[in-house]
Amino acid sequence: MVYLLKRLAFYLLAAFVAISVNFFLPRLAPGDPASTIIAAYSSSLNATALEALKAAYGVTDAPLITQYFAYLGNLLRGDFGLSLSQFPSSVTSVIAGGIWWSVLLGLVSVTLSFVLGSALGALAAWRRGGFFDRIVPPVLLFLSSFPYFFLALLLFYVLCFRLHWFPMGNAFSSVERPPLTPAGIADILHHLAMPALTIVLVSLGPWALNMRNAMIGVLSEDYLTLAEAKGIPPRRVLLSHAARTALLPNVTALGAAIGGVFSGQILAEIVFTYPGLGYLLLRAVGSVDYPLMQALFLIITLSVLAANFLVDTAYTLLDPRVRAGLEA
Amino acid sequence: MYTYSHGKTLLASSWLGFRTSVRAAAFAAVATTSAMAPAFAEVPVDQLVRIVAENGSSFTRVFNPFSPTTRWVSTRTIFEPLMIQNYATGKLDPWLATGYKWSDDALSLEFTLRDGVKWSDGQPFSADDVAFTFTMMRDHPGLIGPATGAFSSYLKSVEAVNPTTVKFTFNSTYTPGLFSIADQFVVPKHVWQGVKDPMTFENAEPVGTGPFTTVDAFGTDRYQMTRNPNYWQPINIEGVFVQGFNGNDQVSAALLAGNIDWGGLVPDPDVTFVPADPDHFGYWWPRTSVVQLQANTTVGALGDTTVRKAMSMALDRQRMINTGVWGKSVPANATGLPEAPFKEWIDPKVVADGQSWVTMDVDAANTLLDDAGYARGADGVRAGKDGTPLKYDIIVPSGWNDWVSASQIVAENLKDVGIDVTLRTMTADSWTNATFSGKFQLSLGTAVRTATPFEFYRNNMATTSVQPVGTASPNNQQRYGDPKVDELLAKFAASTSLAEQKAVVSTLEGMFSAAAPIIPLYEQPDWGLYNTRRFTGFPTADKPYAPLSLQMTNGPLLVWPHLVRNAN
């Protein structure tokens, strides 16, 4: 318990630092959102209009420190301001459109790669040197070293464009979200299949390889020999004794993987025209949309911290040493 | 992802009108939708014109036409102007107004409004709405539209004389103001007068005079607009379907699958697009602006007309056209003006006399520089009189492929005349900042599309358009100003006689050709493509009744009444 409380305090401090970096980092880059937006507009603008526009966009010349405290205050009230690249929409409404699709795609693809990768790695280690072990890890590594964009575009061309097995884009068929009936859910899954599948394909390798290596270490431990000697069925030895211990490094990696969800999805969103937040982040950076950038980075930071906290918690369940207060 | 420059119009980082996009998934999806989701009241997408006009997949429901980042339809299907400058015909087409009249002293301008026009909610449209729109823009200078800034420069007042007559009074004679006023979209007074802050008003349920004002369905990456029940002219189609894309390959795939009816650019269409269905797929790239090489005249030798002209003579314009726009353009002439929209304004004598400085002749360019005293150093690079070597950076946004390739050619060509140019690509944002504030050496640019050449010469040669280095301005990035140009422009603005204005422009053209404030390269095509499998009536080279480009504000309004859905 003390362990968890200590971790919690650490995460709160980390969140505060991240929120501050969030504010200062985008502003260190050169750029002026109002000019950028005006550059995109052909009307002849004079200085008065430019100033009025800057005022409306909240682009002020106030000292950074003043802006920083205003930002902290707004954050506490849950006010992220207005998006500059989709003015005058609120940042919240811009993000609301894509966040659930990002979460869906992220959870499905990370969970699938974690579960599948760990299982394949464990199996490969269990039959070390066997046919499965000689084929599966190299194939997975080959897929991971493949540039994602190329693989995804190839599959898009063959399965979506040529064969029409999967839709060429979007998260569902209708313009507005279908109701969550069996038919609606099936439609959503049909659209999710290609982006999720391609992400899983290229990310399986490390999960499987890490698991296999950890398993091999664990399998040579005395307690497994003992377990086998006691006559425990091999399946149980594999799952409850070997895999459970070997899973620990992968659980740690899971925390980091959650953080990469949005950025990792950017290419999938481009190739399969999927309405997530990764591409939105790319555009926010490109158009110097500070408020939107801040909110997106905040979501990413908080989700990494939350994921790592969950991982720490999971450790107490998986690793008895942590529960006993020893360092894992 | 790669993007294509689109001049200054609209989202500059767009290739095919990458702001315009239509629906990729329709092929596979229409079948599924109709089979499995009959519960929706959405108008079937096959009834709608599918358009590729917007980038991205996080759409929000913003139909405020005064926001530069509003939804594409705001100024293309919802709100309409008094008259539309038709860049395909060069005419000012009547729209909500049937005509205009200047007073004899050219200090007031009256528009006669069309009878019987109604807003989409059934209220009558009247001169009050026009006066209200302009007054609101005066009170909120940050509202962006064609007439932004009119009140702070030439407009004194606007009044509704009677329900069908609106009168604009000027501070001083400024006849080019006609086009800014006529082009301004009008919003309904009865809706907007209750809006507290028109700048941050989202206008999620728009009321307009345009053909498609009903938001039939709105999703995060697609939306469809259907008919205004009270539209003032006959219309044959149900509405439009706008889909956002995140990548260019996906747009190409959707185009080839026939899922888009009207779009912007597809690279090398003769090879990649038209052959897929020559009976239905087509494109039309008229040219209404010029790509120009901008040399910052505040930077050493770049301020010398001889150097700029020698640079111009070193350039292989045809090669830029072949690599950048697949051969679909022509080299620019010595007036700096595009031929088609300004053919009545361009003085053939200026073009003929100036032809030599816009034609490639490396030997003559070298002679020019030798004679002017820019001697070559040991490394072959010339130096100015003060010994500074002629070494410059040319900056362009990364990913604007046509401009990047043109800049590479500029750098290569200028080596032949002893000028050392390095290409630097940067984000569109940094590039905008550098060019606006004058903190650059060489860059590419285009002119704003306008009804007359007045703005072109004002924005490139008038002292009034020159800002000091460090102060941001979209115009006159090269910082060249000549007081004589100011006088000529004042004469133009004070005149209502076309003949007199043409004489002024002819003089300006001659001054441009003499001074070379910018180096014109080639004419920029306006990307536009169509698919006639489901809808016909798009403007083409044979029927150039309107621009095909989706990027031009107001342009698509001219097209909607001509579109017809095929019987099958």
List keywords for this structure.
A: 328 residues, globular, B: 568 residues, D-Maltodextrin-Binding Protein, domain 2, Dipeptide-binding Protein, domain 1, Dipeptide-binding Protein, domain 3, 5-stranded mixed sheet, disordered N terminus
Q: What is CATH's topology name of the largest domain in chain A?
A: MetI-like fold
Work out the count of structural domains of chain A: 2
Helix content of chain B: 25-40%
For the secondary structure, the number of strands of chain A is 0
CATH fourth-tier homologous superfamily of the largest domain in chain B: Dipeptide-binding Protein, Domain 3
Sheet of most strands of chain B: 5 strands, mixed
Please state the CA-atom Rg of chain B, rounded to the nearest Å.
Answer: 24 Å
Q: Runs of chain B with pLDDT <50, length 5+? A: 1-40
The CATH class of the largest domain in chain A, by name, is Mainly Alpha
Say what the CATH topology of the largest domain in chain B is.
Dipeptide-binding Protein, domain 3
Oligomer: heterodimer
Domain module tally of chain B: 3
Q: Which architecture of the largest domain in chain B per CATH? A: Roll
% residues in beta strands of chain A: under 5%
Q: What's the tally of helices of chain A?
A: 15
Largest sheet of chain A: none
**Helicity of chain A, as a percent range:** over 70%
- What is the typical, i.e. mean, pLDDT of chain A? 84
How do the strands line up in the largest sheet of chain B?
A: 1-2-13-12-11
Give the overall average pLDDT of chain B: 89
CATH H-level homologous superfamily name of the largest domain in chain A: MetI-like
